[in-house]
Amino acid sequence: MSASTAGAAMHLTLHVWRQKGPKDAGRMVQYPARDISPDMSFLEMLDTVNERLVESGDEPIAFDHDCREGICGSCGLMINGSAHGPMKLTTACQLHMRSFKDGDSIWIEPWRAKAFPVIKDLVVDRGAFDRIIQAGGFISAPTGTPQDANGLPIAKADADLAMDNAACIGCGACVAACPNASASLFTAAKISHLGALPQGQPERKRRAKAMVERMDLEGFGGCTLFGECQEACPKGISLDAIMQMNRDYVLASATAVEEKVHADSA
Amino acid sequence: MTLKLDAKIPSGPLSEKWDKHRFEMKLVNPANKRKYTVLVVGSGLAGASAAATLSELGYNVRCFCFQDSPRRAHSIAAQGGINAAKNYRNDGDSVQRLFYDTVKGGDFRAREANVYRLAQVSVDIIDQCVAQGVPFAREYGGLLANRSFGGAQVSRTFYARGQTGQQLLLGAYQALEKEIARGGVTMFERHEMLELVLVDGKARGIIVRDLVSGEIETHVGDAVVLATGGYGTVFYLSTNAKGCNVTAAYRAHRKGAAFANPCFTQIHPTCIPVAGEHQSKLTLMSESLRNDGRVWVPKRRKDCGKAPSDIPEADRDYYLERKYPSFGNLSPRDIASRAAKEACDDGRGVGPGGRGVYLDFADAIKRVGRKAIEERYGNLFEMYQRITDEDPYERPMRIYPAVHYTMGGLWVDYNLMSTIPGLHVLGEANFSDHGANRLGASALMQGLADGYFVIPYTIGDYLASNKLEPVAEDHPAFVEARAAVEARLSRLLSVNGSRTVDSFHRELGRILWDHCGMARDAAGLKQALEEIPKLRAEFWRDVKVPGTGAELNQSLEKAGRVADFLEFAELMCLDALHREESCGGHFRTEHQTPDGEAKRNDEEFAYVAAWEYAGEGKPPILNKEPLVFEHVHLSTRSYK
C-alpha cells in the first residue's frame, strides 16, 4: 500500500498516562481515537485526539515534540512498553499509524526514570543530560582563529566513527529502555564521538571520568550490558560506545591514582 | 518615512571594510566585561554560538530557549551543509565568488557589505567547527569532503552526512554547556520571551514566562540579542519545527524595531508532498539530493496516473534540465520551486491531488551504484520511506515545494543592531544577507557567522560607546511590560470560545499559502488583507484555551504565538502587495517576463522595505533603505 492511496480509517483505544504535575500521583486514562488515517504520524494521531479533547472541554495530553522529523530529540514516548514504539531506528514523531491495526489498544507512557522526573502527563525533565555534557562533553576550543581545517587530516574511518556516535539526539530512549535506567549509551556516545578525533585527545581522560561521575550523581543506574538501549536507540548508537567509555574511564581512574601517588610522594 | 535607517556601512574598499571596522570599534576592557549582562534569546546556531562566545570573552550572559534543552533548537534539522569559500577543490572559488553568488542568488536585494563580510568569515567557521570536533565528512586522504549546492558552480559545501545542522548545533551547544559549567552563562530552558523592555529608548530587558511553572519573570540586562529564528510557521504547514514562532521578533517590532522585507519567504523545492488534512508539518528532503536526483514530470497529462517505471524516457519532461541547461537540477530554490508549481498547474503533477513531481535516482544508481547513493543520502532515503511507505531506491521520490525559510526579518545595521539601540538580531531572525532568496547551505553559514564572529565584536562597541544607567526590576518600564504580558495571557485564557488554537492557525496558513505563497497577485493579497483581520477578530472572540496560566499549558503557549501570527500575517501581505515587482521568492504574477521568469524592477524597488509599527489598528509605516550596488552589476538573473 503506498501513501498515495489513503488507507481506511482506523479506530483505536488509547491508554494514556495523565499526571497534572510533579506531585500528582498520576494514572492511566482511556480515550477513544476514532477515524485515524494510517498515513498520520503517531504525533498527528495524538494531535487529533487532543483537538477533540479541547473541543469537548477537556485538557489536552501534554507531550514534548518540536521538529517532527526525528532529529531534535524532543519527543519521547513509551508506546506499548517500547521506547518510541515498535519500529526500529524510528522516533515517535516518525512512527506512522500504518504500524498499527484497526481496533488496536495502545498504551502510552512517559519515560520512566528517577533522573527524568515527570513534569506533566508525558513530559519529563531531561536536564540531567545537559548536566552530563556540562561535566565534560565538549572540546575546549574557544572561538578564535584555530588552524586551517585541513591542517589536521583525520582518517575517514575515524571521522565516520565519530559521526556514528555524534548522531545521538539526546532523546533519552536508552534510559527509558534500560531496566537500570542507565544513561550509559548517551554518555558513551559523546565520549566516543570526541575520543575518536585527534582534537578530542587532550581532554579525553578528564572527560570520561567527569562525565561518568556526573551520570552517577544524577541518579541514573549502572550499566549491566543488557543491551536494551542499543535496541531502542532511534539513531542506531552501538554498545561498542559503552566499551570505549569503560576503557577510557578505567584508564582515567588509573591515571588519577598514579597522579595522586606521585603527588603524595613528592 | 519616520525612521532614520543608517546601515552604518564602514567606508573604504569592500574587501577592507570589516578589518577596518574591527580596528575602529571600541573595546570593553577585559576586567569590565563581567560587569555587563547580555540577554540572548534563542539557542540555535546563532544564539548558542553568540552566548558561548560572549561568555568566553567574559560577559555575563543569560540565554533563553523555549525547548527543554538548547540542543533542540531548530537549526538541528538542517540537513545538507554549510558553505565556505575555502576553495579546497581548486575549482575557482573565492571570497569574491561566494559574495557574488550570494548577492545574485538573493536576486540583488541584499546589502553588499554584509554579504561580503559573511563570505569572508565563512572560512573561519569551518576552522572553528573542526577545532570543536564537528565530524565533517572526509575523503580517504583525511581531508574535508565537499558537495555542490544550488545556485553555485563550485563545490564549496561542507557536510556531516545528512545531519550538518545537527552537528554544527551540537558543536555550539557543547561550547555553550562548557560556559554554563564555568558560570559564564546562566541557561533558562523552557522559558519563552513574551515582551521586550525599553528604558530611555534602549533595549534593557525582557519579560519571559517559565513554561513549567507559568511564572512571569523579569530579566534586566545591558543589551538584548534576539536569535529567535524565522517565521515560516505562520503558514502552519512548513518544514519548520512546530514551536518556531515570530513572537519575540514581533513583540520587538511593536516596541519599535523595524521589520524588513517580511514578504521574502523561501519555498523549498524538495519536500515530501502533503498527504492529508491531518498533516501537521512538512518534511524537507535536502537540496543535496539534487546533486544526483533528476527532476521530471510526464510530458503528457494522461500519463500522470501511470507508475513512473511505465513511462518511457521519451515521454518524460526533465523540465529543469530543459529550461536551465547550465544549472539544470541545481537551479536555485525559488526557480526550482516555481518550475514545479508550473508543471503541476499545467496538470502534469503526480501523486495525490496532482501536487508532486518526481526526483529520480535511477540514473545515479546506474552510474555510481546503490552503495554510493546509500552512503550519500541513506538517512534521507530512510526518512522518505518511513513517511510515504515508498522505496526511493526502486521508485522515484515524489516531492513538492514547501515553506522553508524566511529571508525577511528584523532590520539590522552592519553591526547587527536593530532600530532599537541595544537590541541586536542574529541569524534567520534578521533580514540582512540573503536578499529575496537564500542559497542552499547559507543559513548555517550566516547563523554561525553572526554568533561566533560578528556580534562578539559589535556588541562590545555598543556597550563601550553607550552610558547605561543601572536599572532595577521594579523600574516602571518593567512593571508596565510585565502587567501587559499578564493581562494578555489572562485575556487568552478567558475567551473560552469553541475553536481550538490549531484550527485558527490552519486557517491562517491556508489564507497565506493561497495568496502570499509561491505566486502572488494584487487581487489575492487584497483578499488576504480582508480575511486576516476577520480571522483575528474571530480568534479573540471564539478561541478556546483550556487550563490555567500557572502550569505547563501547551495550548496557552500556542495561543500566544498564533495571536502574534495573526497580526504579523497582515504585515507580510502588505509588504507583498506594495512590492510591485518579482524578485527571488517573491513572485508577483503581474510582473513576469514573456517566458515566465521573475521580472525585477530595480528602478523603483532596489530597496529594503523596513516597516515601522504605528500603533494598534494603524497601518504600519514604510521606510526605505536604498540598496547601492557598487561591486555587483545589477543584471537579470539567469541560470540558463
Summarize it:
By secondary structure, chain A is α+β, with helices and mostly antiparallel strands. Chain A contains eight helices and seven strands, in the order ββαβββββααααααα. Among the domains of chain B are: 269-402, Flavocytochrome C3, Chain A, domain 1; 476-600, Methane Monooxygenase Hydroxylase, Chain G, domain 1.
The helix count of chain B comes to 17
CATH class designation of the largest domain in chain A: Mainly Alpha
**Do you know the CATH topology of the domain at 269-402 in chain B?**
Flavocytochrome C3, Chain A, domain 1
| Architecture (CATH level 2) name of the largest domain in chain A | Orthogonal Bundle
Examine the coordinates and then state which fold CATH places here, giving the name of the CATH topology of the largest domain in chain A: Fumarate Reductase Iron-sulfur Protein, Chain B, domain 2
Shape of chain B: globular
Q: Return residue spans of chain A where pLDDT drops below 50 for at least 5 consecutive residues.
A: 1-5
Query: How many alpha or pi helices of chain A?
Result: 8
Computed Rg of chain B: 24 Å
**Helical amount of chain A:** 25-40%
Summed over residues and divided by their number, the pLDDT of chain A gives a mean of: 95
The profile of the biggest β sheet of chain A is:
5 strands, mixed
**Helix proportion range of chain B:** 25-40%
Q: What would you note in describing this structure?
A:
The complex is a heterodimer of chains A (266) and B (640). Chain A has 266 residues and is an alpha+beta fold. Chain A folds into two domains: 10-120, Roll (Ubiquitin-like (UB roll)); 126-139 and 155-265, Fumarate Reductase Iron-sulfur Protein, Chain B, domain 2. Chain A has helices at residues 42-55, 127-136, 156-166, 173-177, 184-195, 204-217, 228-232, 240-265; strands at 10-18, 27-36, 78-79, 82-83, 105-109, 118-120, 123-124. Chain A is elongated. Chain A has eight helices and seven strands. The longest helix of chain A is centred in the last third of the chain and has 26 residues, at 240-265. Chain B is α+β, with helices and mostly antiparallel strands and 640 residues long. Chain B is built from 17 helices and 19 strands. Chain B has helices at residues 17-24, 30-33, 45-57, 95-105, 112-132, 164-182, 247-254, 319-323, 333-345, 362-368, 370-388, 443-465, 476-494, 501-515, 522-542, 554-578, 602-605; strands at residues 37-41, 60-64, 82-83, 157-158, 185-188, 191-199, 202-210, 216-220, 223-226, 259-260, 265-271, 294-298, 316-317, 357-360, 397-406, 409-410, 423-425, 607-612, 621-626. In chain B, the strands form five sheets. A five-stranded parallel beta sheet of chain B has the order 5-2-1-9-17. Chain B has a five-stranded antiparallel beta sheet with strand order 11-15-14-12-13. In chain B, strands 16-10-18-19 form a four-stranded antiparallel beta sheet. Chain B is globular and about 75 Å long. The chains are: A alpha+beta (266), B alpha+beta (640). At the A-B interface, helix 1, helix 2 and helix 3 of A face helix 3, helix 5, helix 6, helix 11 and helix 12 of B.
